[in-house]
Specification:
five-stranded parallel beta sheet; Cobalt-precorrin-4 Transmethylase, domain 1; 3 domains; 415 residues; Methyltransferase, Cobalt-precorrin-4 Transmethylase, Domain 2; seven-stranded mixed beta sheet; alpha/beta; Rossmann fold
């Protein structure tokens, strides 16, 4: 049985390697890792050494080096915090002749917390290292955010985005070259950090006291009052219907959502506040509607909403794969819109509001077919109190039917 030990090397200084990690290196035939991860580590001269980072390259090297019995893969930081260890374990797990062991290291988060002499159990974690990070959406959640960054410009750029969104007073700590002799830790406001230059090797801790934009709707529940939205002559899905529609879409915090025929963007805003770590793509053919969407996005501070001018289904072709789709307006193209969503994701969740019997009939026929499961149809009939003299009478709103279902994926004939 061959053994592969994946070790976390810590922030970078080899003095922080654990005893277990050093023992694994001492008896290894092969040691693999990025140049920075291997720098300063005392690797025996007869050990084969590869400077590799990508999972595929590491697996290929282990496959080619047929004579090894004990291999060590060194990864910076801790193997459980935005590390490539998970992908490597998955890649190696299919080989019954390889036993994989994981040895944790000191993460940059725990190291920084120690340097600041403070606990870190209440921090939440995100990454801007090679991925998009909606820092404004993170600010809306308040609290303390530990952010893995990439490149010396990120602290400055991200802080600039916070300033533009009204979070210039957020407390930002930029930690450069942690554990090295030239380590530097800078604590200031986002306004003070924006425009500064930092070493490429850095992480950030951002402390949000609560934001200016979040005060418009500081609640976790859906059903934002209609009057809080910037309105025009463009149709808008009403409060009660939005609340039920969001429940039918079953959104998660990381979902990608399409709002087709987004109107003023009211559903897009509601979805974005649920899917804070995801994204919402508001497709609208009306130029006035696109302007209203952008104004409402700015008003609610939902940086994860993207207004998409265009006509569906053509405008959907370049959008990312959706987890959920709300079809607020189809302009007679409902079958094509549904097909475009299924082509991207055969298990997509859909919700279609219908105000006419004809649209209801079409939506029910589409979403109750063999390519879907979990078909539901309900009528939302709401009435609101309206003052009449010294009394209040209930005034009925137009009834709306909500038709929803989920793509059956490999079931029921879907591709």
């Amino acid at each position: 049985m061959r053994k592969v030990t994946i070790i976390g090397a810590g922030p970078g200084n080899p003095d922080l390697l654990s005893r277990a990690a050093l023992d694994a290196i001492d008896i290894a035939d092969v040691v693999i890792g990025a140049h920075r991860a291997l720098a300063g580590i005392d690797v025996p001269p007869d050990v084969v050494r590869y400077e590799l980072v990508k999972t595929a390259d590491i697996v290929a090297a282990l496959t080619d080096a047929a004579s090894w019995r004990r291999a060590v893969v060194v990864m910076t930081g801790d193997v459980g915090l935005f590390s490539g260890a998970r992908r490597l374990v998955e890649a190696l797990s299919g080989d019954a002749q390889v036993d994989v062991r994981v040895v944790p290291g000191i993460s940059s988060a725990s190291y920084l917390a120690a340097r600041l002499a403070r606990p870190w159990q209440d921090w939440r974690f995100a990454s801007a290292h090679g991925v998009t990070c909606d820092i404004v959406a993170e600010a809306e959640r308040a609290g303390e955010l530990f952010l893995v960054t990439s490149g010396g410009e990120d602290p400055s750029r991200l802080s600039g985005e916070l300033v533009q969104a009204g979070f210039g007073d957020a407390r930002v700590t930029v930690a450069e070259r942690l554990s090295y002799p030239d380590e530097r830790i800078t604590c200031a406001t986002a306004s003070e950090i924006a425009g500064q230059t930092f070493d490429d090797l850095n992480v950030m801790l951002i402390e949000f006291a609560g934001g200016a934009a979040s005060s418009r709707w500081p609640y976790a529940s859906s059903g934002i009052p209609d009057e809080l939205f910037i309105r025009g002559d463009v149709p808008m899905t009403k409060q009660e219907v939005r609340a039920v529609a969001l429940a039918k879409l079953r959104l998660t915090a990381t979902d990608t959502v399409w709002d087709v025929g987004a109107g003023t963007g009211s559903v897009s805003i509601e979805a974005a506040l649920v899917a804070r770590a995801g994204s919402v793509w508001a497709v609208e053919r009306n130029a006035a509607g696109v302007r209203l969407i952008r104004e409402n996005v700015a008003a609610f501070g939902c940086g994860n909403v993207h207004a998409v001018p265009g006509v569906a289904p053509e405008a959907l072709a370049k959008l990312p794969v959706p987890d959920a789709v709300f079809v607020g307006g189809s302009a007679g193209e409902l079958p094509s819109i549904v097909e475009a969503a299924l082509e991207k994701n055969s298990q997509v969740r859909l919700c279609v509001p219908c105000v006419t019997v004809e649209t209801l009939t079409e939506a029910c026929a589409l979403l109750s077919g063999s390519r879907f499961k979990g078909f539901e149809a309900c009528q939302v009939s709401a009435a609101r109190a309206e003052a009449v003299g010294s009394h209040h009478l209930m005034k009925a709103q137009n009834p709306v039917f909500l038709v929803s279902a989920r793509g059956a994926g490999g079931e029921g004939g879907a591709r």
